Amino acid sequence: MPIFVFPDEPVWNEEADAVEFAVEVGEYRGRVFVPRRALQTLLGHTPKPEEALQAVSLEPAVFERAVELRITDRALDPDANIHLTARDIRRAAPQ
User: Fold this and answer.
1) Does domain 4-92 have CATH number 3.30.160.140?
2) Do residues 63 and 56 touch, judged by C-beta distance below 8 A?
3) 3-state secondary structure at position 38
4) Residue 21's beta-bridge partner residues?
5) What is the pLDDT of residues 61-75, one digit of tens each?
6) d(CA 76, CA 48)
7) Which of 8, 18, 40, 76 is the most exposed place for a label (fewest CB within 10 A)?
8) 3-state secondary structure of 77
9) Which residues pair with 25 in a beta bridge?
10) Is residue 28 classed as helix, strand or coil in its secondary structure?
11) Alpha-carbon span 19 to 9, nearest angstrom
12) CA distance 6 to 30
């Protein structure tokens, strides 16, 4: 059984201007946000919501690994959710 569970598909959160998906670790249940600005840094342009969703959906292992690294580093945001940065994503990407 995996330690980290990602139970739902990513969705666009207009209010947060980010791709959003859930993460579960034991009793912890939180939300992960991948802000458009983080994706802009990686893609080299400001993605539209559909393009941002596609970027996350096409590389789920990278984004899931970025979340795992933040959790194992105990780097949760004050609201107990995770807001990934471009640095988090680059750190998780295969070299």
Assistant:
1) yes
2) yes
3) helix
4) 32
5) 899 899 988 887 776
6) 27
7) 8
8) coil
9) 4, 28
10) strand
11) 10
12) 10
Interatomic CA distance for residues 51 and 54, integer angstroms: 5
pLDDT in tens, 17-48: 999 998 887 777 889 999 999 999 888 999 99
> Which of these, 1, 59, 6, 57, lies nearest to 28 by C-alpha position?
6
* Contact between residue 34 and residue 47 where contact means Cβ atoms under 8 Å apart: no
Contact 52, 39 (CB under 8 A): yes
Which helix (DSSP H) or strand (DSSP E) does residue 66 occupy? helix 60-72
Contact 19, 56 (CB under 8 A): yes
| Nearest CA-CA partner of 67 in 50, 49, 90, 92 | 92
**73: nearest Cα among 59, 61, 60, 87:** 87
